Amino acid sequence: MSDIDIRTTGRAGRITLTRPKALNALSYEMCMAIDTALRNWREDDEVDLVILDAEGEKAFCAGGDIAELYTTGTKGDYAYGQKFWRDEYRLNAMIFEYPKPVVSFLQGFTMGGGVGIGCHGTHRIVGESSKIAMPECSIGLVPDVGGSLLLALAPGRLGEYLGVTGARMGPGDAIYAGFADHFIPQKQWPDMIEMLEASGQADLLAEHAAPAPDRTLPQDDIDRFFGGETLGDVLTDLRNGDTEFTRGALEAMGRNSPLSMACSIEMLHRLRGPALTMRKALELEYRFTFRSMEHGDFLEGIRAQIIDKDRNPEWQFADMNVPAAAVSRMLMPLGADTLTFEEE
Fold this sequence. Notes:
3-stranded parallel sheet; 11% strand; 45% helix; 16 helices; globular; 9 strands; 6-stranded mixed sheet
């Protein structure tokens, strides 16, 4: 497949995304190719670790390839999207639970679906250009591909802030928030990959890590203004704040789907606690995405952002007053359609 290069080099299974002109956006076929490779290498004694990287300077992976989702969804065919998300989420869980080290090199943009394959491994490497974000609310989705787990585990209320504003994290913030592990200058990456291929020892990466750049996200402001139980609570606190931070947050949120933001906050509150697992997070995400075309804002979000590019979506609940019942409907259990995983 020209969009992805899968091979074995030395002790390493190698997966390289090779569509830099599309910012290495993930297609369904690419997801399934990664899935197959990981299954094959799981039992292969010749493969000690897996390395994920991507061609181009702009992005490791800027998200999922959503053109086909829009084409099918606007025709009333919701099954394709439901299958896409179901199989993608199973891949996300496999990476998270993989029995061998999974090393990812995350240059440039890592967003959405890129987080799903790049931020659940054991050794997540960022460099000077790394920009990591979960901007799904801008297209009428919620932070998914296991991103809700990372957001729920992030310090304080950082998860709510990142989820509903889509704010981008530089390398220092990404490590602090739990989306990455080590900062290594990008000029060293080719040598690091050669070392991994030759040795099969992912633990060597820590010896080559450099101090990460300073964090820039204002944790105190985030905790102060994003502690509300609901979207309405958060908006009230922000509107009463009248600071540069609150104005910026309100502007960012004003571009996003109110239903998606309300559901994102509810999801994080439900997930936090001792019972949090990747599978629980993915199952909750799938409740929303399964319904997102028929009952959510997803198709309108794609139309406004990517198809017509008018940046003027007609969201449900455009006044930002999202009823609790609407959130509950999107997050109700799916019954027979519940997301399941292998070996359950």
